[in-house]
Design a protein that fits this description.
This protein has 418 residues and is an alpha+beta fold. The chain has three domains: 143 residues, no CATH class; 64 residues, SH3 type barrels, CATH 2.30.30.60; 146 residues, no CATH class. It is 58% helix and 11% strand. The chain is built from 15 helices and eight strands. Strands 4-3-2-1-5 form a five-stranded antiparallel β-sheet, with no helix packed on it. Strands 6-8-7 form a three-stranded antiparallel β-sheet, with helices on one face. A hairpin with a 4-residue loop joins strand 3 and strand 4. Helix 1 packs across helix 5 and helix 5 packs antiparallel against helix 6. The chain is elongated and about 125 Å long. The N and C termini lie far apart (108 Å). The model has no long low-confidence stretch (mean pLDDT 80). This is Miniconductance mechanosensitive channel. It is found in: Membrane.
């Protein structure tokens, strides 16, 4: 193969010399034409191998049951390998084309060699990405920190790659280079500690897509609660909602805990999760007369009719003694109020009915029984979200009295004034 390449690119110079051109002119003219030929041949090789490799991999991915080859196609591994083949052709051709230009031969040889090293690392990265995605499909590995393992391996490979690049660029023996790097690493780490930590964190933040400019984040340790306006090597700037600015060290994003609200903003709704405390002493069974009166409430009138029939049939079938309300099945004012709130939420226009929506009773406390609303509003803007939540709880608080319930309030000295 090498002999054929040599014949192609050494053909023009003797031809030009036979035509009577000078040595220098023939050299430069043959160089220009050889570069054009090299570019055309490299492009043709790239097109052919890209078509062949991508097609073969796509066909294999369709015919095999495993998902790994499909993920290789998704991560464009074949496309990057197709880039590597013409580069190897160029790397072999450069010494022949630039045989009479020693300086440029060394320069371009190093340049192409460095590009090959970077491309090989990139191909390995796409394979690891495909492997990561494949393992995440397996329940056995779904909770394992696969990303961390791959990042550590890639860091080691990049260190090796950078060592090879420096060795090739400055023509230093790799063993000597590693010895020199080991000797100065302690001093470098001491002087540039914050910069190195910031750089590593910036890479982690970027690769893992932890934070983007414009994200709303909350980080209590630094008093940050607002939008990210700048991310650089050393710091991340956050404009808080009170228009102050908080500066966070970049490495804190990977070492400390923070809350990113991007998922909420990109979702179909913003969560409403708030409760009221019902005084325990006000919870009781409902009597027949009260049930008839509560049927006037439109949202629960049909529910009351169906529920009353169901309860009466059960009590009758089981010959329940209803002289005591505790016997058999009954309706409570709290249970009916909970049903009313649920129906109210289902009929409230600003809530997303496709997301989780419920009114639930939480664990009783010394302050009463918490009754919590859990729902999602369509509108995620702060002011509109707060209005929707306030409007819902205005209605809930005002409705409590209709069910003969009371909301817990801490007694103050004003309650004892006559």
């Amino acid at each position: 193969m090498y002999k054929y390449i040599e014949k192609i690119f050494t053909f023009l110079y003797p031809v030009f010399r036979k035509w009577g051109l000078g040595s220098s002119t023939a050299s430069y003219l043959s160089l220009v034409l050889n570069i054009l030929v090299l570019c055309v041949m490299a492009y043709v090789i790239y097109v052919i191998f890209r078509l062949v490799l991508v097609t073969i991999m796509a066909v294999i991915a369709q015919k095999t049951k495993t998902k790994f080859d499909d993920l290789l196609v998704t991560n464009k591994t074949a496309k990057y390998i197709a880039h590597l083949i013409p580069l190897l052709f160029i790397y072999k051709s450069v010494p022949i084309i630039l045989d009479r230009f020693v300086y440029w031969e060394t320069f371009f040889g190093k340049l192409v060699g460095i590009y090959i090293i970077i491309l090989v690392l990139w191909i390995i990265r796409t394979i690891f990405n495909a492997l990561r995605d494949y393992l995440k499909l397996k329940p056995r590995y779904s909770d394992k920190p696969i990303d961390s393992f791959i990042q550590v391996i890639m860091i080691m490979l990049w260190v090796i790659g950078i060592t090879l690049i420096i060795s090739k660029l400055f023509e230093i023996d790799q063993k000597e280079l590693l010895t020199i790097l080991g000797a100065v690493s302690a001093v470098i780490i001491l002087i540039f500690r914050d910069t190195i930590l910031g750089f590593v964190s910036s890479v982690q933040v970027s690769i893992n897509d932890m934070v983007r400019i414009g994200d709303w984040i909350t980080m209590d340790k630094f008093g940050a609660d607002g939008d990210v306006i700048e991310i650089n090597l050393a710091t991340v700037k956050v404009r808080n909602f009170d228009n102050t600015t908080t500066t966070i060290p970049t490495y804190s994003l990977s070492s400390d805990s923070f809350q990113n609200w991007r998922g909420m903003l990109n979702s179909d709704g913003r969560r409403i999760k708030r409760h009221i405390l019902i005084k325990t002493s006000s919870i009781r069974f409902l009597e027949e007369a009260e049930l008839d009166n509560l049927k006037k409430i439109h949202l629960i009138s049909d529910y009351l009719d169906n529920r009353k029939v169901e309860i009466d049939e059960y009590n009758s079938a089981n010959k329940i003694d209803k002289s005591l309300a505790i016997n058999g099945r009954n309706m409570t004012n709290l249970g009916l109020f909970r049903k009313y709130i649920t129906e109210y939420l289902l009929n409230y226009p600003e809530l997303n009915k496709d997301m989780l929506m419920l009114c639930r009773q939480l664990q009783s406390t010394s302050h009463g029984v918490p009754l919590e609303v859990y729902a999602f509003s369509h509108d995620k803007r702060f002011e509109n979200y707060e209005y929707i939540m306030s409007d819902i709880f205005d209605h809930i608080i005002a409705s409590v009295g209709y069910f003969d319930l009371e909301i817990f309030e801490t007694i103050s000295e004003n309650d004892f004034k006559i």
